[in-house]
Amino acid sequence: QVRLVESGGGLVQAGGSLRLSCAASGRTFSSYTMGWFRQAPGKEREFAAVISWNGISTLYADSVKGRFTISRDSAKNMVYLQMNSLKPEDTAVYYCAAGPFSKTSYEYDYWGQGTQVTVSS
Question: Could you read off the pLDDT of 54-77 as tens digits, one per residue?
Fold first, then answer.
Protein backbone atom coordinates (compact mmCIF):
# COMPACT_ATOMS: atom_id res chain seq x y z
CA GLN A 1 0.00 0.00 0.00
CA VAL A 2 1.14 3.53 -0.81
CA ARG A 3 -0.60 6.61 0.56
CA LEU A 4 -0.07 9.88 -1.29
CA VAL A 5 -0.72 13.43 -0.09
CA GLU A 6 -0.22 16.43 -2.38
CA SER A 7 0.48 19.99 -1.30
CA GLY A 8 1.75 23.26 -2.70
CA GLY A 9 -1.15 24.31 -4.89
CA GLY A 10 -2.54 27.81 -4.89
CA LEU A 11 -3.32 30.92 -6.88
CA VAL A 12 -0.57 32.40 -9.05
CA GLN A 13 -0.40 34.94 -11.84
CA ALA A 14 0.45 33.91 -15.37
CA GLY A 15 4.21 33.64 -15.77
CA GLY A 16 4.68 32.69 -12.15
CA SER A 17 5.91 29.48 -10.54
CA LEU A 18 4.72 26.89 -8.06
CA ARG A 19 6.26 23.75 -6.67
CA LEU A 20 3.94 20.87 -5.90
CA SER A 21 4.95 18.23 -3.39
CA CYS A 22 3.69 14.70 -2.95
CA ALA A 23 4.42 12.92 0.31
CA ALA A 24 4.27 9.16 0.13
CA SER A 25 3.99 6.59 2.87
CA GLY A 26 4.58 2.91 2.46
CA ARG A 27 7.59 0.66 2.42
CA THR A 28 7.49 0.08 -1.33
CA PHE A 29 7.46 3.74 -2.45
CA SER A 30 10.99 3.62 -3.82
CA SER A 31 10.05 0.83 -6.21
CA TYR A 32 7.23 2.77 -7.87
CA THR A 33 7.26 5.05 -10.85
CA MET A 34 5.57 8.31 -9.88
CA GLY A 35 3.40 10.44 -12.09
CA TRP A 36 1.65 13.77 -12.01
CA PHE A 37 -1.72 14.18 -13.69
CA ARG A 38 -4.12 17.09 -13.85
CA GLN A 39 -7.82 17.60 -14.37
CA ALA A 40 -9.42 20.86 -15.40
CA PRO A 41 -13.15 21.50 -14.87
CA GLY A 42 -15.22 19.66 -17.44
CA LYS A 43 -12.21 17.86 -18.88
CA GLU A 44 -10.72 14.42 -18.53
CA ARG A 45 -7.73 13.77 -16.33
CA GLU A 46 -4.57 14.20 -18.37
CA PHE A 47 -0.96 13.19 -18.02
CA ALA A 48 1.60 15.84 -17.09
CA ALA A 49 4.85 14.10 -16.11
CA VAL A 50 6.30 10.83 -14.88
CA ILE A 51 9.57 9.79 -13.24
CA SER A 52 10.98 6.29 -12.99
CA TRP A 53 11.55 4.49 -9.71
CA ASN A 54 15.27 5.38 -9.76
CA GLY A 55 14.80 8.96 -10.96
CA ILE A 56 16.77 8.35 -14.14
CA SER A 57 13.96 8.48 -16.67
CA THR A 58 11.36 11.20 -17.06
CA LEU A 59 8.63 11.92 -19.56
CA TYR A 60 6.53 15.03 -20.05
CA ALA A 61 3.37 15.97 -21.86
CA ASP A 62 4.05 18.28 -24.79
CA SER A 63 1.93 20.95 -23.12
CA VAL A 64 4.29 21.23 -20.13
CA LYS A 65 7.64 20.26 -21.64
CA GLY A 66 10.30 22.85 -20.96
CA ARG A 67 8.23 24.49 -18.21
CA PHE A 68 7.64 21.71 -15.67
CA THR A 69 10.24 19.51 -13.97
CA ILE A 70 9.46 16.34 -12.06
CA SER A 71 11.87 15.06 -9.41
CA ARG A 72 11.91 12.69 -6.48
CA ASP A 73 13.73 12.22 -3.21
CA SER A 74 13.27 8.59 -2.31
CA ALA A 75 15.11 9.02 0.99
CA LYS A 76 12.34 11.41 2.03
CA ASN A 77 9.53 9.60 0.18
CA MET A 78 8.79 12.79 -1.76
CA VAL A 79 7.98 13.63 -5.37
CA TYR A 80 7.96 17.18 -6.69
CA LEU A 81 6.63 19.04 -9.68
CA GLN A 82 8.31 22.38 -10.30
CA MET A 83 6.06 24.47 -12.52
CA ASN A 84 7.46 27.57 -14.19
CA SER A 85 6.06 30.02 -16.73
CA LEU A 86 2.56 29.06 -15.71
CA LYS A 87 -0.32 29.75 -18.06
CA PRO A 88 -4.06 30.09 -17.38
CA GLU A 89 -4.57 26.80 -19.22
CA ASP A 90 -2.49 25.08 -16.51
CA THR A 91 -5.37 25.68 -14.09
CA ALA A 92 -6.48 22.28 -12.79
CA VAL A 93 -6.47 19.93 -9.85
CA TYR A 94 -3.11 18.20 -9.82
CA TYR A 95 -2.77 14.62 -8.66
CA CYS A 96 0.26 12.49 -7.95
CA ALA A 97 0.04 8.78 -8.58
CA ALA A 98 2.12 5.64 -8.11
CA GLY A 99 2.26 2.92 -10.71
CA PRO A 100 4.03 1.87 -13.92
CA PHE A 101 6.03 4.13 -16.26
CA SER A 102 3.00 5.20 -18.25
CA LYS A 103 1.06 8.20 -19.49
CA THR A 104 -2.22 6.35 -18.98
CA SER A 105 -4.04 7.23 -15.79
CA TYR A 106 -5.96 3.98 -15.37
CA GLU A 107 -2.70 2.02 -15.21
CA TYR A 108 -1.73 3.69 -11.93
CA ASP A 109 -2.41 1.90 -8.67
CA TYR A 110 -2.48 4.68 -6.07
CA TRP A 111 -3.66 8.28 -6.13
CA GLY A 112 -3.54 11.29 -3.90
CA GLN A 113 -6.50 13.55 -3.18
CA GLY A 114 -5.27 16.35 -5.43
CA THR A 115 -4.23 19.97 -4.98
CA GLN A 116 -5.79 22.93 -6.79
CA VAL A 117 -3.64 25.13 -9.02
CA THR A 118 -5.22 28.30 -10.36
CA VAL A 119 -3.36 30.57 -12.78
CA SER A 120 -4.85 34.02 -13.32
CA SER A 121 -4.31 35.99 -16.50
Answer: 999 999 999 999 999 999 998 999
Grouping H, G, I as helix, E, B as strand and the rest as coil, residue 107 is helix
The 3-state DSSP class for residue 88 equals helix
Three-state secondary structure readout of 19-87? EEEEEEECCCHHHCEEEEEEECCCCCCEEEEEECCCCCCEEECCCCCCCEEEEEECCCCEEEEEECCCC
What pLDDT is stored for residue 83 in this prediction?
98
CA distance 95 to 20: 10
Diameter of the chain measured on Cα atoms: 42
Taking the C-alpha atoms of residue 3 and residue 32, their distance in angstroms, rounded to an integer, is 12
Closest by CA position to 32, among listed 95, 120, 102, 114: 102
Per-residue pLDDT tens over the stretch 15-38: 999 999 999 998 777 889 999 999
Confidence of residue 103 (pLDDT cuts 50, 70, 90): very high
Amino acid at 69: T
